[in-house]
Hints:
Layout: H1 5-8, E1 10-15, E2 20-23, E3 29-31, H2 34-40, H3 57-63, H4 65-68, H5 72-82, H6 93-113, H7 117-122, E4 133-137, E5 140-147, H8 150-163, E6 169-170, E7 177-178, H9 199-213, H10 216-233, H11 244-263, H12 268-275
Amino acid sequence: MMSDRGNLYIHVYTTVHPGTIFYQAPAETAGVGENLIDFIYQDLSEALPDDSDADCTGRLKALHPYFRHLSEHALKRFVYNSTDPSYEGSDSVQGLLQLQKTYKAWLLQYVQEGFSPGLADTAGTFRLYTQSHFTWLDGQPAVDYYLLGFQDCLYLEFWEMIRAQTLVKICKNCRRLFLPKKSNIDYCSRIVTKDQKTCQDVGYTQTFARSVKSDDLLLAYTRAYKAHYARMTKPRKHAGNLSRADFEQWYQEAKKKLALARSGQLDAAEYKEWLKK
């Protein structure tokens, strides 16, 4: 039976400190939660077999670590099951699409409500080929698992995230879940532009632009700020130029009046009119 494990099961190690997952061997590692979140947003249309590539196991292995450590037999079974629209088991594209929705909902609940032992209970349990046991991996304590498939990989990683109370946030730019390295990071590192810029590169600018468009008072303030700043930095003849001290005084007053207008203590129309002076 020991020799058959590689044909049926996914061998996974999890370390205690820091939270890391090893697939099959220490050669492929990831932080706890990284593969799960990648899976949630994976475009699974790439996993569908087509007429020109009936046996797409190679593409599957390149798609995600969960595929790379399945046996050829399991991969071919996955491809076969995915050609049947009525089949909804987790070893098919149809089943994985449902798992994406399920785990996304659970992680959003985790972000909103924080640590909750009951949340892990809703996912059920992962199945083990043999009883898991503690071991040592590269000089650090680890737990050794043999898992039966995708659903068990997902659940194990989800449980490890909850156990370690892993920090998960929603990117303020693309609105997708991510794992920040620090609690004050609000933007993920996904590439979102044609010139390979990430949410961290463009997030603040785009978020501010969206907030300006939806905020009448902020839009008026931003326009006035730019106009007054130009009067200070680009003096022109026959124009009301500003000194740096005058600009600073206007800036401080404009911010205070903006707060008053937003709270209703200053008439919005009156504030906009004042900004034009």
